[in-house]
Design brief:
By secondary structure, this protein is α+β, with helices and mostly antiparallel strands. It folds into 3 domains: 51-151, no CATH class; 194-251; 267-416, Histidine kinase-like ATPase, C-terminal domain (Heat Shock Protein 90, 2-Layer Sandwich), CATH 3.30.565. 52% of the residues lie in helices and 23% in strands. The chain contains 9 helices and 12 strands. It has helices at residues 2-50, 60-65, 91-103, 153-226, 236-264, 275-285, 287-292, 310-327, 384-394; strands at 69-74, 80-85, 107-111, 114-130, 136-151, 271-274, 296-301, 305-308, 333-340, 344-352, 398-404, 408-416. The strands form 3 sheets. It has a 5-stranded antiparallel beta sheet, with helices on both faces. A hairpin with a 3-residue loop joins strand 11 (398-404) and strand 12. Helix 1 packs antiparallel against helix 4 and helix 6 (275-285) packs across helix 8 (310-327).
Length: 420
């Protein structure tokens, strides 16, 4: 699916950019060629107008401007009757030029290995005579043809070189665009591809996690239905296992729903509240578990307020404090620190215990990932830290974690004092 999408993006990019490149380069060539032809025509007209039969030569300015040019006068028989040239050529050269004019009034001809552009015009002789009544009679006669020639060889060679250069440049640019488009098509599709892979993993992991307690429930129900005459008291062991499976499914489904909610929500509430009170209340809720595990709790909580979503902040801190108590070793320690600066509130939660292996640290925020020290926990689904990260990012904050195996694990939360 994604391979086809990348191909489509690449094809679209290449089609559009190639079209733009070709049109741009073609426009450059056409504009250059048009300007060149216009300049040549203007020069030819100046050369044509510069020759006068009564003077028999170019004017001085024209001679200096157009060194590779000439004008010839062609009589009725097609021969050269007069000429004025800035180049030295044999008579046969001019006769061949006159022959070209007699065949075609304007155009280009190749003479002596050079390309000459020319224009021509018929010269009319006008005679005025008077008849016996002294009335004027005007007689016209086609006397000669004047033709002007300009050497455009250098111009044509330059045009050819420009065309080749533009063609080569277009090919190089298109090849370059191909690789750039290939790179960006892969880059554009990669997030969707990664999201798709994560979604598939999520579904697979969720199915697996739900299947385990469901299997426990079904197997224990099978045991109960096999002994219908037994009392409830005698079957309590199986009922407790069913209850345990239900509790596990309930916990997993709650966390899945919370993750889905984080992914779906685009806006959060904003209210000013005491984050110190929230952290103190959560610590009180964990008092029973702390006492049961004989954990020593150390707190240093500054008085701090923040403007954010109270419910989500409480949810975030609840997840992290629950993890600290859960993974703290018996008779271990938990430390809570809350400090406030002008822009941020920072909460640090530390707990002693097995800690997290260095190889597991980069993966702890991945959904359903459980390190070797948490894999055996029945109430661990690998969703707590991913959920905490999602909440923190939704609030514009950040969660980081560091751990020294068999010593201490430290989770740091940084939230803005006032959310933008």
């Amino acid at each position: 699916m994604f391979k086809k999408l990348k191909t489509q993006i690449l094809f679209l990019c290449m089609t559009l950019t190639s079209l733009i490149v070709v049109v741009t380069f073609a426009a450059i060539f056409v504009i250059t060629l048009t300007n060149e032809r216009t300049g040549e025509s203007k020069q030819l007209e100046e050369i044509f107008d510069s020759y006068h039969s009564n003077k028999g030569s170019f004017t001085e300015s024209i001679t200096q401007s157009f060194t590779a040019s000439f004008v010839i006068m062609i009589d009725k028989a097609g021969g050269v009757s007069d000429k004025s040239s800035s180049v030295t050529k044999p008579d046969s050269f001019y006769e061949e030029a006159a022959k070209a004019v007699s065949e075609r009034a304007t155009g280009e001809i190749k003479l002596s290995g050079r390309i000459w552009k020319y224009i021509s015009d018929e010269q009319i002789e006008v005679k005025v005579e008077f008849d016996n009544d002294e009335s004027a009679v005007i007689n016209t006669a086609n006397v000669e043809t004047k033709a002007a020639f300009l050497d455009v060889t250098t111009s044509r060679e330059a045009t050819t070189r420009l065309g080749r250069l533009l063609a080569i440049s277009a090919v190089v640019v298109i090849i370059l665009i191909f690789f750039i488009s290939l790179f960006f098509s892969r880059k554009a599709v990669r997030p969707a591809e990664e999201a798709w892979e994560k979604q598939k993993q999520f579904v697979a992991y969720a199915s697996h996690e739900l299947k385990t307690p469901l299997t426990i429930i079904m197997s224990n129900i099978g045991v109960l239905t096999a002994s219908p005459d037994e009392t409830v008291a005698s079957q309590m062991k199986w009922l407790q296992r069913i209850q345990s499976g239900c509790d596990r499914m309930n916990g997993l489904i709650k966390e899945l729903l919370l993750l889905a909610q984080m992914d779906a929500e685009h806006e959060t509430k904003a209210e000013t509240f005491s984050i110190s009170e929230v952290l103190t209340d959560l610590l009180s809720e964990e008092a029973a578990r702390i006492k049961q595990k004989q954990i020593e709790v150390t707190t240093k909580i500054d008085d701090a307020t923040t403007t954010s979503d109270r419910d989500k902040v409480k949810q975030l801190l609840s997840i992290l404090l629950d993890n600290a108590v859960k993974y703290a070793n018996d008779s271990g320690s938990v430390e809570l620190l809350l400090t406030k600066s002008a822009r941020f509130v920072e909460i640090i939660i530390r707990n002693s215990g097995d800690g997290i292996a260095a190889k597991d640290l980069p993966m702890v925020f991945e959904r359903f990932y459980r390190g070797e020290n948490s894999a055996g926990k029945e109430d661990s689904y690998g969703l707590g830290l991913p959920l905490a990260k999602a909440i923190a990012e939704k609030l514009g904050g950040k969660v980081t974690i560091d751990s020294v195996p068999n010593e201490m694990t430290t989770v740091t939360v940084r939230l803005s004092v006032k959310r933008d």
